[in-house]
């Protein structure tokens, strides 16, 4: 009797599982007219498949099978009636000429979706080389005219895994106004000289987890803008690029606080910076707190592997003599080791107006691999708490901002 009951129950559960799988629908873009010939614009077919998948009352999957798909702007708009997956196995290629996407807020945009999954091992190729040659934002200060490769806006409870962003025209991935999103085993690749090709930029989002990413690019591997809260970044391989950055903060009024950031178990190689917190001088009031960097390996970082810079002023476009009003507090740097091409291996340059509070330094060993001078640790307007073994000696040079 008992064994028959168990067998009957098992069979019943199997039927339920089979029924659920049977109801889950696949929406293959080729059935909507996608050619995958590398010439035809397949964006309409992709957008049509998405609209039907999003309208499905049962879980569904948009399938982009292996092949090369030329595609103009793609808008994956929600809300949807049930969870939707997008399985990208092939390569999507953006128009090479930036003018063809100039009016768009991004090349590929996922917006207002709950329970999204994007996976499949495929590639989003932004074909950015022409755009980089036309990018003069370092001189003009206007860097938003080029499209971001992939934008996630207003997502909740979503998972992005096993995709590659290649040669983006501007940022590779932008996470904005999102909650409870994981990016796992994502790859971003662009030449080190490509301008403003940040790997992952996060803003006004909470509970974002980045793990296992490989980022080779021409700007920050990961950058956090205002409103980034409860952000976990781990097992990231970064380089070339500008390292992992919080900020810059304080450029605009009404910026939201940055709180609860953890960066751990990362390797940063041949980058211009390591881990840094940067705020503008002459800024409005702001907050950056509970920022923790630990178990990080630095390999030949060019400028200050550990940096707090509250005089951040690229291209001299600011009032550098007026102190920043962004309050930085509860910051820790623990177990960070490696080499620097700059003798100033640690620089904590805090604001004269609002000095950094509760900065903890523990078990740091950073060496200078150049020939001019020795490794130094500079402190400005901050008195950190130090524990463990620290090399070079902490705050051997302590100065105040003028």
From TrEMBL:
Q: Name one Pfam family in it.
A: Glyco_hydro_28
| InterPro entries for the chain | Glyco_hydro_28, PbH1, Pectin_lyas_fold, Pectin_lyase_fold/virulence
Q: Where is the active site?
A: 242
Instruction: Write the signal peptide boundaries.
Output: 1-24
Q: Where in the cell is it found?
A: Secreted, Cell wall
What terms describe the molecular function in GO for this protein? polygalacturonase activity
Q: Which GO terms describe its biological process?
A: carbohydrate metabolic process; cell wall organization
Tell me the SUPFAM superfamilies matching this sequence. Answer: Pectin lyase-like
Q: Which UniProt keywords apply?
A: Cell wall, Cell wall biogenesis/degradation, Glycosidase, Hydrolase, Secreted, Signal
- Family, as annotated: Belongs to the glycosyl hydrolase 28 family.
| UniProt-recorded name of the protein | Exopolygalacturonase clone GBGA483-like
Can you name the source organism? Prunus yedoensis var. nudiflora
């Amino acid at each position: 009797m008992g064994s028959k009951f168990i067998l009957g129950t098992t069979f019943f559960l199997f039927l339920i599982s089979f029924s659920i799988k049977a109801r889950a629908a696949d929406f293959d873009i080729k059935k909507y007219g996608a050619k995958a010939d590398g010439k035809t614009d397949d964006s309409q077919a992709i957008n049509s498949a998405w609209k039907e998948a999003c309208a499905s009352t049962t879980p569904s999957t948009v399938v982009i099978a292996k092949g090369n798909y030329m595609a103009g702007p793609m808008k994956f708009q929600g809300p949807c009636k049930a969870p939707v997956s997008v399985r990208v196995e092939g390569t999507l290629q953006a128009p090479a000429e930036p003018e063809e996407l100039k009016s768009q807020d991004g090349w590929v945009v996922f917006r207002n979706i709950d329970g999204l999954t994007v996976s499949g091992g495929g590639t989003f190729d932004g074909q950015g080389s022409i755009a980089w040659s036309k990018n003069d934002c370092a001189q003009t200060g206007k860097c938003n005219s080029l499209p971001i490769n992939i934008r996630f806006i207003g997502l909740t409870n979503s998972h992005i895994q096993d995709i590659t962003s290649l040669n983006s025209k501007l940022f590779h991935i932008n996470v904005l106004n999102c909650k409870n999103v994981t990016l796992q085993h994502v790859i971003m690749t662009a030449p080190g000289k490509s301008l403003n090709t940040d790997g992952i930029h996060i803003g006004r989002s909470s509970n974002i987890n980045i793990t296992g990413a490989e980022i080779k690019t021409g700007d920050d591997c990961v950058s956090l803008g205002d409103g980034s809260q409860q952000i976990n970044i781990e097992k990231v391989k970064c380089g070339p690029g500008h390292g992992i950055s919080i900020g810059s903060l304080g450029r605009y009024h009404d910026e939201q606080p940055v709180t609860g950031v953890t960066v751990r178990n990362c390797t940063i190689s041949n980058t211009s910076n390591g881990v840094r917190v940067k705020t503008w001088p002459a800024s409005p009031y702001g907050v950056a707190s509970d920022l923790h960097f630990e178990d990080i390996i630095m390999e030949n970082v060019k400028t200050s592997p550990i940096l707090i810079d509250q005089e951040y002023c690229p291209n001299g476009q600011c009032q550098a003599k007026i102190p920043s009003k962004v309050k930085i507090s509860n910051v820790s740097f623990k177990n960070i080791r490696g080499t620097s091409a700059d003798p100033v291996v640690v620089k904590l340059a805090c604001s004269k107006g609002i000095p950094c509070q509760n900065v903890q330094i523990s078990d740091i060993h950073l060496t200078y691999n150049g020939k001019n001078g020795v490794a130094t640790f500079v402190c400005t307007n901050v008195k950190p708490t130090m524990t463990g073994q620290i090399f070079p000696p902490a705050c051997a040079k302590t100065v105040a901002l003028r």
